[in-house]
Amino acid sequence: MSLPTTQKAIIFEQHNGPLLYKDIPIPQPKPTEILINLKYSGVCHSDLHAYKGDWPEPTILPLIGGHEGAGIVVGVGSQVSNFKIGDYAGIKWLNKTCLSCEYCTLGEETCCENQDISGYTVSGSFQQYVVADAIQAAKIDPNVNLAEVAPVLCAGLTAYKALKKANLRQGQWCVIIGAGGGLGSFGVQYANAMGFRVIGVDSGDKKSLVLDELKAERFIDFTKTDDIVQDVVELTNGGAHGVINFSVSEIALNLGIKYVRPLGTVVIVGMPANSFAKSNVYEHVCKQFNLTASSVGTRQDTIEALDFFNRGLIKSQIVIAKLSELGKVYEQMERNEIQGRVVVDTYQ
Questions:
Q1: 132 near 97, Cβ under 8 Å?
Q2: Which residues cross the membrane (predicted)?
């Protein structure tokens, strides 16, 4: 297959600096890597944090962000046996893991001590061609829409893993904080598909999306209630069995801790910069609830999350934008104007 020598990409050389839409060389895969011709990439709030540089762990610079890209394999390293030219493949947050540390051998590679992160420590998916480790790259069904599956590789996967960590049973109450956002919109759908009763928490302009399209059982507009803790306790007859915080609001997170049920679980996913989870020790001990956190999913979680999508149980709530206009997407993100997920077309 004859490939071009250059491609379009969005790159920044310093945090909060210009987002440069420019021609760069196409990378070449190492023996254990594949080269993916990306067609679409979802835009995650983590990408905005990488651009701003406001998380404790430093990024590489210059940096091509992005970590939920979907496309077609156009190059295969000499040691790769699980992909071939023409396969559909995806790049995830975890670009590569060592497979030999304590966490990898336990099947918890999200905590790998030597991981490479797409769009953070290695170049990501805001480009037309990207290399990915063949072990961590996602296998995508060739019959799916690449624009719709792209956000599943991070937003969907992250939402699914968080719900697994909540350890809920069918019929139990699950509150999704930030239900109308990129992660929350998947969280509501996965929670429904897993048999939970779902309360979506968000602002009123997202009520129709959360109730009518995502099919949450109840919706709470946090801008209209005087006491969200009391609202949840009354709706659930005692508090939610599971609370998943996908928002980037420290206030929302800490209110969620207050309305979890005794023996329930709060899962922290959204990471507002410089924030803290606060739990009153007396209440924590008396209620005996679990306070845990979740980042992204493992390879097995990826297989499971994609299976829900392949069977039509999960649909991506997407708006397609141009890669060249990524800066405008970031501005909308900061103003909390985005419903669902923005997916950029890498060829525009």
A1: no
A2: none
